[in-house]
Model the fold of this input.
Amino acid sequence: MYRVLIVEDEQIIRKGLIYGFNYEAADCVVVGEASNGQEGIDKIKELNPDIVITDINMPIKDAFDLLEETLDYMYAAIIISGYSEFSNAQKAIKYGVSEFIVKPIDMEQFSEALERAKQQCQMKQTYTYDDSSNLYGSYSW
Amino acid sequence: MKENHFQQRLRKEILMYSGALIAIISFVLVAIFIVFNRVSIDMQLDTTEATTRSLVTSSLQQYESQLMENRESIYSAYLEQKINESSIYGNYYSFNSQQTLKGDLILLDSSLDIAFATNNKFDEDGVFKNYIQILADNLSDETEILQRLYMDRNRNHNLILMTPLDDNKGFAAYVIDGKEVRSQLNKIQAQFIISDRYDNVFSSSSSQFIKGSLEKVDRQLFDKKFTYKDAVYYAKRSQLTPDLYLTVYQQRLINPSYVTISTLVVLLLAVLLVVFAFVFSKRISYKNARSVELLSQEMKALKGDATKRLSIQTDDEFGIITDKINQMLEELSDSNRQNINLLKESMVAERKKLEAQFHPHFLYNTLEVIRAAILFDTALANQLILRLTTILRYSIEEKNTEITMESDIDYLKEYLEISKARFQYFNYVIKLDEACKQLPVPKLFLLPLIENSLKYGFKHRQDLSISIEGEQRLDGTYVLRVIDNGQALELHKASQINHQLQRNQMLGNHHGLMNSKRRLQLMYPESRFELKVDEYFTIIEIEIGEKTDV
Done:
């Protein structure tokens, strides 16, 4: 089971993200939620999730602050934005985020994004574990 | 005076050119006069000289050759008494009949007595005999021919051509009377004097310039040009033969009084021309300058009145200029009208563009909220859809162009209500007095300010609160305030933005503030916007309306 954290300041959207998708069927479980960037950072540090789904604009700290401050944590991120703005996408890619979803959310796209995030997560974890014992690393799927 | 410069310059120029023209005409007239006078006199003198010269020299040459031819033959033979008188006569007459100038032949024997003469007047003239003997004494044996002048008792002037015969046999001479020359040359009315180097006269066209008992030429009088008895004469002297000189002369054709009269006429003409030029230049310059002055006056009157046209009506170039200027004015006011229309259209376009700046972020987020609400709170979803529709319709519709603050705030409330549903800790307050509620405002002009408050306010706190206040002051102006507790702006940043706002400069990321201001100023050009911050609040203060006396 992949452990999912949801960071979204708007309560209704956050609820929609949590209860509007069958995570169990996708081999995932929502382990936590946060209503702003700072809370998100705290939860990441506390829960060490496999996948983080986050809004961009949030009170106190935004998604990029969150990514910056949790670079040491191995998770795959999915970014949800109000509008598709190229500069946001670019910034997100800089932090290794490839999954970018716009509001209102198409659940099929969300599902696909989650699948890719899972694969990315698996890859990262394999690489990291091997890296500790083997200098050159090796990929095993 | 500036207006008169043109007139003066025009006049000066006309006068200058007229003066030059008059001077040239006068000069040419005088020159023609002088040259004509001079040339005609010279021509006449030359003609007289040539005619006289050809007559006299050719005659004398024939006489001399006759003498040379016969002196060794029949003249000598006669003196030696080898032939008789009739032979000499025969020879003489046949020669003399061919001559234009008739002459008498005289033969002197060795004792210098007259042996033969074709005219007996010489026998009676003792003085002549003496004179001719003196000449004979002076003559050498050489075969030369002496030319001498002689005046007889009757004051006839004669030319003696004399030559010695060989072996002192005697002398032969021809005597030609000066009257012969005169009678020939009088036909062409030549004026001449033939004289020798001692001023003795052989022949002359008249007794003018001949004086004294010896009837010599008054040489002192003669010059190239001289005055004699109030008449001006031109003269020319040249050598005819080694002993004879020819003087031709000619009275000036034009009387001195004619010269005076002509000069006076030219002068009078010149004066008349000058006077004419003076008057003419004044009139022309006045007339033209008048047109220019009129034009400039009318041009002055045009200023500030776009509908006025020039009214000069002449059929000259000024009339054409007037027409052209009027045409130009017509085109100008046409394009001006077009410009005004374009400006109006662009203002409408700008207003529409500003109104359309409804932030799409709001739309997408709200739709996502609705999508999520459908899952667990359909009543909320329903309410949000209705609110969103209301505000969208209001912002898109064209008809609500004149609205009051009260109705506009009602639509703004829909937006705030949606925001309240989205952000659970968000709150807002609206406080307007009655006068303020009736104030006409541009549609949703406060929306950009609300959007700003939400955008920046939520960055620092989730329990954001917005307050919208409005009241009429005692001086009649209205003051509106949008206040939030977001504390998004530092003091120096706020004053910098406020500074730019007052100058209508582009505000970097703060389009909303500028947008709101421009929308309001399209309706209230005198309205003022001010951004203030204090420890807890960000305040946008808006003043609308003219101050009126209380």
